[in-house]
Amino acid sequence: SDLLRWDPTFEVMASFFRDSGIKGALVFRRNTLDWNVCRVRDCFDAGARGYPVGEDGERDERCFNRRKDPSHPTWALLKAARIVEKMQRDTEIRADTAKRL
Predict the structure, then answer these.
(1) Percent of the chain surpassing pLDDT 70
(2) Using an 8 Å Cβ cutoff, are 78 and 40 in contact?
(3) Which of 1, 14, 47, 60 can bridge 52 by disulfide, Cβ–Cβ 3.0-4.6 Å?
(4) What's the pLDDT tens digit per position in 24-71?
(5) Across the strands, what pairs with 59?
(6) Considering Cα of 28, then 33, then 35, then 39, what sign does the dihedral take?
(7) Three-state secondary structure along 12-80?
(8) Is the pLDDT of residue 95 over 60?
(9) Which residues does residue 78 pair with via DSSP β-bridges, in sequence order?
(10) What pTM, to 2 d.p., does this model score?
(11) What's the pLDDT at 75?
(12) Which residues contact residue 35 at a Cβ distance below 8 angstroms, ignoring those fewer than 6 apart?
């Protein structure tokens, strides 16, 4: 995937997957707050959980591209009530998925 090509470990992982015959992988972060902050900083969920901000507190529209430029950090301004609701739901979905695997 072109989205992951910026990551220096991508080629190592891709090579391992190809050589092992792995067609796909399912990965979960254990820390749901960290996962939600990442989703906000990457602009997923169209602002349902919050939105990314720069050092000045203004919205940062770089979204996923922020990963390519670590010189300008991006934070997540979270919607407290929504983030708790989303984290609870995410935990339920992960538990259900794990049972089915």
Answers:
(1) 92
(2) yes
(3) 60
(4) 777 777 888 998 999 999 999 878 899 999 999 999 999 988 888 888
(5) 53
(6) positive
(7) HHHHHHHHHCCCCCCCCCCCHHHHHHHHHHCCHHHHCCEEEECCCCCECCCHHHHHHCCCCCCEEEECH
(8) yes
(9) 50
(10) 0.68
(11) 94
(12) 28, 29, 90
What number of other Cβ atoms are within 10 A of residue 38's Cβ? 14
- How many whole angstroms separate alpha carbon 39 and alpha carbon 88? 15
Dig out the tokens for 47 from the structure: 């602002």
Distance (Å, whole) CA 74 – CA 54 = 5
Q: Which residue has the tokens 């990314």?
A: 52
Please list, residue by residue across 68-87, b when 16 or more beta carbons sit within 10 angstroms of its beta carbon and e when fewer do. Answer: eeeeeebebebeeeebeebe
- What torsion, rounded to 10 degrees, do the Cα atoms 56, 59, 65, 70 define? 20
Average pLDDT, stretch 5-25? 79
Closest to 73 (Cα-Cα) out of 31, 49, 29, 37: 37
- DSSP category for residue 101: -
Of 32, 50, 42, 19, nearest to 87 (Cα)?
32
